[in-house]
TrEMBL record:
Residues 32-144 form the Acyl-CoA dehydrogenase/oxidase N-terminal domain. It comes from Stygiobacter electus. Keywords: FAD, Flavoprotein, Oxidoreductase. This is Acyl-CoA dehydrogenase family protein. The keyword Ligase does not apply. It comes from the Bacteria.
């Protein structure tokens, strides 16, 4: 891509058609003193209050999680995103990202924490009127009041708008009478208020704030779950529950805006938390490998184990890079919108919506990185990994839900391409021009210019070429299927996987290039090694995803042409990934934990 395509700040989805400069991205090494204090507070809380009580939390010892949430409130951890005028800290988005990543080490308590501070609080912060904010936010920030988010029903999961819960205005016009059932509600066993969705007049999807002390409200029994056993998960029942009209959140019939915009943030924060959890389990893996001896040597000295340790670290590093890159974009967008006259809430909503595509991709990537890491943690532990006496088993069980939370990974893969196409059709994203240019390039003789020079220049060139592979594949898929593309879910998911590989690989490159301006050559070498390995593997995966996609809709000469184009755009010289992985593993083995 030419210099004309470079930009300092990208709009949502523009990473596919524009380049970014290293100095434009936010990286975790730029953490400031205030953020360090927040991280240290959260880390001390988790290590002193959560880790020693994991068994009691998992057994849902009466009142324990509630008391821990209240302690978190006393420390200011529940109100970081809430403005100071409502009893919070008013921290910026980057600070909240650091906090989320740290709280990702708190096992199932982190689920209770995230449900309260995220989807349980943000709807009021984003959409509440002045009276609602004054009534609830300070109590949510302190932990005096706990919240839950009630969207899922027995017959509506991914298809949330098909909810059957009804809301009928009372004859005197003072209340809405709600009837229905909600399922899988995190914090359902102790929440004081519920952010609940119901159909007004049968077809107006609307959000309500419900007081759980209301007559007609009842809770089901705790669900017997595979993992995250310490989080309360219940079905909730509404039997003629009277909700004051002043407890309508937002506007009648516009509850979907609340549901979807809050989920954008929830998806992003889930990636931050899973990345934090993955770091924890990578460290557990390294420490066990350093202790366990077989055949007279620690298993950390074996190549097969080094591969696992290094691959854990590489995927974590890439996930963290993409997470903080996106955090910086959202943070800057919030400031931009507030500078233009938007309110705090409007700015937060607008920034979250702008980067909804990136949030969906990160939710998929982060949850699957954690799944990989905990799976390999079990494997490194061998038979001990299958024992509840060791930490690997709990991590393995707890991790699995993340691919279902906040919209399944399949739904998020479908949403990613759907949002890209819709933004292109609305003129928000110029995909047509670059896609047409790629088709012309595909028909031309390849030009062989000078080899790129500079740190990771070849890797960046490879990523830019991979973007062409995506535009080529997506462009042909749109031409083939037109309005029926949405029905070709396998193709869409292949395209999303290509997009995820490009975004994450580019994020790792940009972070490492920026680090090169801040650290010595020796200090950044492991980051260079990790990035080179990831890009090398990513190019192979992009090629495979592309093959699967084009084979779904092309044949004959057209298939041959697209296959040649795919090979051309995903070509990458072989890298000695074995050596590079060993370098990464050796660093961690020496440090006795994840150290990047």
């Amino acid at each position: 891509m030419s210099d004309e395509t470079k930009t300092k700040v990208l709009h949502g989805g523009e990473f596919l058609i524009k380049e970014s400069e290293p100095q434009s991205v936010f990286i975790p090494e730029e953490i400031n003193e205030e953020q360090k204090m927040m991280v240290e507070t959260a880390r001390d809380f988790v290590q002193t209050e959560i880790w020693p009580k994991l068994d009691a939390i998992d057994k849902q010892e009466a009142g324990l999680t509630v008391s821990l949430l209240e302690k978190a409130g006393e420390l200011g951890l529940l109100g970081t995103s809430i403005p100071e005028e409502y009893g919070g800290l008013g921290a910026d988005f980057n600070t909240n990202t650091f906090l989320s990543m740290e709280m990702g080490t708190s096992y199932s308590f982190g689920v209770s924490f995230a449900a309260h501070t995220g989807i349980g609080t943000l709807p009021i912060l984003y959409y509440g009127n002045d009276e609602q904010k004054a009534k609830y936010l300070s109590k949510l920030a302190s932990g005096e009041m706990k919240s839950a988010y009630c969207l899922t029903e027995p017959t509506s999961g991914s298809d949330a708008l098909s909810a059957k819960t009804t809301a009928k205005l009372s004859d005197d016009g003072k209340y809405y009478i709600l009837n229905g059932q909600k399922m899988w509600i995190t914090n359902g066993g102790f929440a004081d208020i519920l952010i609940t969705f119901a159909q007004v007049d049968g077809d107006k999807f609307t959000c309500f704030i419900i007081d759980t002390s209301s007559p007609g409200f009842t809770r089901g029994e705790e669900e017997n779950k595979m993992g995250i056993k310490g989080s309360s998960t219940r079905a909730l029942f509404l039997d003629n529950v009277k909700v004051p009209v002043e407890n309508v959140l937002g506007e009648i019939g516009k509850g979907h805006y609340i549901a979807f915009n809050v989920l954008n943030v929830g998806r992003y924060k889930l990636c931050a938390m899973t990345t934090g959890g993955a770091k924890r389990f990578c460290t557990i893996s390294v420490q066990y490998a350093n202790e366990r001896k077989q055949f007279g040597k620690t298993i950390a000295s074996f190549g097969a184990i080094k591969y696992k340790l290094a691959e854990q670290a590489i995927r974590i590093f890439v996930a963290e890079s993409a997470t903080f890159r996106t955090s910086g974009l959202i943070n800057d967008k919030e400031h931009e919108l507030m500078s233009s006259g938007k309110s705090y809430s409007e700015a937060m909503i607008g920034a979250a919506e702008e980067y909804a595509i990136e949030a969906a991709m990160l939710k998929v990537f982060g949850s699957e990185v954690l799944d990989y890491v905990v799976d390999e943690t079990v494997q490194i532990h061998g038979g001990y990994g299958y024992s509840e006496e060791y930490p690997a088993a709990r991590g393995y069980r707890d991790s699995r839900i993340n691919r279902i939370f906040e919209g399944t990974n399949e739904i998020n893969r479908l949403l990613t391409v759907d949002m890209l196409v819709k933004r292109s059709m609305k003129g928000r994203l110029n995909l047509l021009g670059p896609a047409m240019a790629i088709q012309k390039e595909l028909m031309s003789v390849p030009e062989f210019g000078e080899e790129p020079t500079g740190l990771l220049a070849k890797e960046m060139q490879a990523v830019q070429n991979a973007k062409k592979a995506i535009l080529m594949t997506a462009g042909m898929a749109v031409q083939k299927f037109m309005q029926k593309l949405a029905d070709e879910q396998e193709v869409i998911m292949n395209l999303t996987d290509m997009l995820i590989e490009v975004y994450t690989a580019e994020s790792a490159i940009l972070r490492t290039q920026k680090l090169a301006t801040m650290k010595s050559e020796n200090e950044i070498q492991p980051y260079v090694d990790m990035t080179r390995v990831y890009v090398s593997d990513a190019m192979e995966r992009i090629n495979i995803y592309g093959k699967h996609a084009i084979a779904s809709f092309a044949e004959g000469d057209e298939l041959k042409l697209l296959t040649l184009g795919l090979k051309r755009f995903t070509k990458f010289d072989l890298v000695n990934t074995t050596k590079l992985r060993r370098n990464v593993a050796d660093r961690m083995i020496e440090a006795n934990g994840y150290c990047f």
